[in-house]
Design the sequence.
């Protein structure tokens, strides 16, 4: 059975992230990926989760507290373009996840935008370990979504194949702008 | 780790094909997929393998004989556009594989072409079981390859999402026209 892009992304995370690892959730959002990552890194691991919205940070904090996993997670109420300030060591991170677009059930006028997204993706590739995985779920149905999708595809498809494998995984016969996954593996 | 389109296709086949199933290799070629399928269907299963080239049929027959699996395989020295003549029962086949392009190490002037490929894909969707999988590896680096790629993508992306999931799986940062996989699941 074919997995959805989101399910496939989670399967890749489970393969890639091991106990004790450091990982980043670049868009904490409703905290679902942050929670998954906190489980995967185990008690000796560390998750850094970014979000520019106080609402997203609060929802994520609540989920982590309910699961008793909050001490593994460093919540950053800050834009993901600041990754290098928070996490300056290159090749130290096993996996990084992005969900581009708006906060589901939140204010749909607050969206990720190409300038900061590209800056954050570039920083992500720097901090990513060899064999590490940068997973970008591209939601592009909102105003401005097509422009961001195009900028991200241009960025990803230009990455040198000597250093990165860039996979596009998506359904191509669905209406209503379904999201797709870009999975970028550092070689 | 990210699987190549071919490895991902084989992983999907292993999930989809069970002992006793009937399956089709629409382009036997060097017989590698035919052999994999013959293993997967077991002693009570059946593989129908098509190829228009006598050379491909001979290579495939030799591989099957060496593995002692020839009695599970019906080798058809015929174009795959004749699927419905050989296999008239709708929804009877668990998996169908295509490798578009030319026979590796063979005569590179003999290639699959849009007209017969589209006819064969259409027939394939008819004979495919529900939950069955049509897996198309699209090699498109040869003369005419871009035209066929475009025709197949148009065909696949127009399939109704109520009846089919159509996944595109491919690396987007590689030079030299890397092949990609279209995986079509009947719902």
Sequence:
């Amino acid at each position: 059975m074919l997995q959805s892009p989101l399910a496939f992304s989670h399967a890749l995370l489970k393969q890639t992230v091991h106990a004790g690892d450091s990982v980043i959730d670049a868009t904490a959002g409703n905290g679902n990926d942050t929670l998954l990552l906190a489980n995967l890194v185990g008690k000796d691991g560390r998750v850094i989760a970014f979000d520019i919205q106080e609402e997203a940070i609060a929802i994520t904090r609540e989920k982590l507290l309910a699961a008793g996993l909050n001490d593994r997670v460093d919540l950053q109420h800050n834009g993901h373009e600041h990754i290098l300030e928070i996490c300056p060591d290159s090749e130290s991170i096993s996996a990084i996840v992005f969900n581009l677009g708006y906060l589901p059930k939140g204010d749909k006028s607050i969206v990720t935008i190409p300038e900061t997204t590209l800056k954050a993706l570039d920083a992500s590739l720097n901090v990513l370990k060899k064999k590490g995985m940068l997973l970008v779920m591209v939601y592009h149905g909102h105003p401005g979504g097509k422009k961001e999708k195009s900028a991200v595809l241009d960025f990803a498809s230009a990455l040198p194949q000597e250093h990165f494998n860039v996979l596009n995984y998506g359904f191509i016969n669905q209406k209503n702008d379904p999201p797709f996954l870009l999975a970028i593996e550092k070689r």
